[in-house]
Design a protein that fits this description.
single chain, mainly alpha
Length: 167
């Protein structure tokens, strides 16, 4: 049967060329995880997946999840339950990793959206992590917030009492 599937849709929406060897590689790696060594069988199963895709996605471009679902179905229907289980567990681990990466990315975007705070001290502007100095607000300066005098010079040893700002 001639391959009609020529493109796939990635998770981020990009359309990429369909590559049957990638399906065979995924099946073979799952088989290796449970002790399988037959590369030819993995390629045969990839052909069966391609046939299913051609039948079920005649008019549309299949997504990665659709293809992976077909791989699971073919593995189970052809009696390769251990390989299917290894494949499903691998998919689950990758999905968890993607979720964690998304959470990190959202957290980084929130952090990047915050205005940058600057500290001042007797030695000039520093990063927000500086301790013992006043943190400048990202809001516009008001008259009462303007620094009217320079803070006193500090000794090399920090004292337990705060001498600046004056109460």
């Amino acid at each position: 049967m001639a391959e009609r599937i020529t493109q796939i849709r990635k998770r981020d929406g990009r359309v990429m060329p369909f590559e049957k060897p990638k399906i065979a590689d995924a099946i073979f790696k799952a088989a290796q995880a449970v002790g399988g060594e037959d590369r030819f069988l993995a390629e045969e199963l990839a052909s069966a997946v391609t046939d299913y895709l051609n039948r079920h996605f005649e008019a549309e471009v299949p997504g990665i999840e659709d293809i992976q679902d077909m791989v699971e179905k073919v593995l189970i229907e052809t009696g390769h339950a251990k390989t299917a289980k290894a494949y499903i567990l691998y998919r689950d681990r990758r999905a968890q990793t993607r979720r964690e990466m998304t959470v990190r990315k959202v957290a980084q975007e929130k952090t990047a959206a915050r205005p940058t705070l600057r500290c001042w001290s007797t030695r000039g502007p520093r990063t927000p992590s500086c301790r013992g100095t006043r943190v400048a607000s990202p809001t516009p300066w008001r008259k009462r917030r303007t620094l009217t005098r320079r803070p006193p010079a500090r000794s090399p040893r920090r004292s337990k009492t705060r001498s600046w700002p004056p109460a």
